[in-house]
Amino acid sequence: MGAKVVTITSGKGGVGKTTATANLAAALAAMELKVVCIDADIGLRNLDLILGLENRIVYDLVDAVEGRARLRQAMIRDKRFPNLYLIPAAQTRDKTAVSPSDMIRLCDELRPDHDWILIDSPAGIERGFRNAVAPADRVLIVTNPEVSAVRDADRIIGLVEAEEKGPAQLILNRLNPEMARRGEMLSPNDVIELLAIELIGIVPEDEHIVVAGNRGAPIALDEKSRAGQAFRNIARRLNGEKVPFMDLERRDGFIGRLSNILGRGG
Amino acid sequence: MAPRVEIKGIREGLLVTVGEGEWGEIERSLIEQVQRRSAFIQGARLTLDVGQHELHPTEMGALVESLTRFGVSVHAVLSKSLVTETSAQGLGLGTRISQSAAKAPVRLAPVPERQGESLFLRKTLRSGVKIEFAGDVTVIGEVNPGAEIVASGSVVIWGRLRGVVHAGAEGDGEAVVCALGMTPTQLRIAGQVSIPAGRSGKVQPEIARLTGGQVIIETWEAK
């Protein structure tokens, strides 16, 4: 019983942790599951923007931890789903305002009333990362098909293993299938061969994500978007469903072409 | 005299055994050892055998926290004291490891023709891990880019080498580096540095050694 705590992390900044958190939260909420997401990026909060909830913030994570607000008061209800909540980060403090044991306590308090607790980890490997990972039951590593992002993901996987939070699962974000096919970008196969962890989803590059983020409307709620579809699939896999990987080559649309892409890369 | 703190490798990671004495001093001595040998210990799973010492949750919490700062995660605490066991359980730490595991050290018996230590690692070394060892190192697993092995002896990798290896780090020009897939970021043997050209084609077992002051990489073939 109780919620599963999933931490979304990456090491490198800018690979799409916050976008992934917001979209998985929205997709899980759309499946009528009770979801809380926690922005652990204290001092550089963003998740509220991506979810379009910035103007509703009164209390935040640090207020709840330091007792200035009850946990309930720091939970912002989403405007689209009554079963989705956000606990925003404090913007005027830094990572040391919260400790790993605070995060464990907070999540334990949330567990009984929810199905999923998603934690958006800050970039880096310091205190903020340790805060985000401490309460995790599962860890999702977000990376891009770029050498630098994959290198940092490898480091993070090692740290997650050391914290005994493994095995982590991988979200390969912002893949351009056409470039990967031409060998101009790391292919999913290259990335998985090096990182040697289970892949939970590939999200194709999609400029609509930028637009959606600016509007505060997660792309996972856009039925027509392929990136949105990818996030919805990841949410279903997280929830235990077996969902085949999407065909990322649009030209002839049958599922299973992914294996061809995998085979050709590398 | 400083209290005794002993660190040795076991199958589960590292076993730290502390001796008798005042806890504050032991803690200082332990932290100091961890700091001094950080390259060897970093990222390790640590089992702590505190013997008779009676540790309350705050003391144990403080120790775990300071060890975490040095990149060491405490996995279990062994103790003869019930109070200590309860504190450990309160922090979500184990209080048992199997006896056979405790007695199976990671270090292998010395190789006959070379009297020295040997380190055997059965795991993939990911980016950010640095292994420093006075002796030979064997890895069953991959050595990923960003990982580094520095050994005074030879290094054998049953897996793909993509990181940095320095064999013969104290000047032994006889040291060799072997890997099932030899695509290192950089290879050093004794004082020689070699930056292998980017290679494509078949990945095959190879051995690198110093020949005429140069690092030469040869294909290993079964006779």
Question: What's the short story on this structure?
Answer:
With 266 residues, chain A is of the alpha/beta class. In chain A, 39% of the residues lie in helices and 16% in strands.
Describe this structure in words.
The complex is a heterodimer of chains A (266) and B (223). About 2% of the residues of chain A have low confidence. Chain A is of the alpha/beta class. In chain A, α1 crosses α11. Chain A has one domain: 3-Layer(aba) Sandwich (Rossmann fold), CATH 3.40.50. Chain A has 12 helices and 8 strands. Chain B is elongated, with a radius of gyration of 20 Å. About 6% of the residues of chain B have low confidence. At the A-B interface, α7 of A face loops of B.
The residue fraction in helices of chain A comes out at: 25-40%
Question: Which outline of chain A best applies?
Answer: globular
Q: At the first level of CATH, what is the class of chain A?
A: Alpha Beta
Give the tally of structural domains of chain A: 1
**Largest pleated sheet of chain B:** 6 strands, mixed
Q: What is the C-alpha radius of gyration of chain A, as a whole number of Å?
A: 18 Å
> What structural category do the secondary elements of chain A indicate?
alpha/beta
In the sheet with the most strands of chain A, the strands line up as: 3-4-2-5-1-6-7-8
Key features of this structure:
heterodimer, A: 266 residues, alpha/beta, Rossmann fold, 12 helices, 8 strands, 39% helix, B: 223 residues, Alpha-Beta Plaits, Pectate Lyase C-like, 2 domains, six-stranded mixed β-sheet, five-stranded mixed β-sheet, 5 helices, 15 strands
What is the topology?
The complex is a heterodimer of chains A (266) and B (223).
Chain A: E1 4-9, H1 17-30, E2 35-39, H2 47-50, H3 61-66, H4 71-74, E3 76-77, E4 84-87, H5 100-110, E5 116-120, H6 127-133, E6 138-143, H7 147-162, E7 169-175, H8 177-181, H9 188-195, E8 198-204, H10 208-215, H11 226-238, H12 257-264
Parallel strand pairs in A: 1-5, 1-6, 2-4, 2-5, 6-7, 7-8
Antiparallel strand pairs in A: 3-4
Chain B: E1 5-10, E2 13-18, H1 23-36, H2 38-41, E3 45-49, H3 57-69, E4 73-78, H4 82-90, H5 99-102, E5 118-121, E6 130-133, E7 136-140, E8 148-151, E9 155-161, E10 164-167, E11 177-182, E12 186-189, E13 192-194, E14 206-211, E15 214-219
Parallel strand pairs in B: 2-3, 3-4, 5-7, 6-8, 7-9, 8-10, 9-11, 10-12
Antiparallel strand pairs in B: 1-2, 11-14, 12-13, 14-15
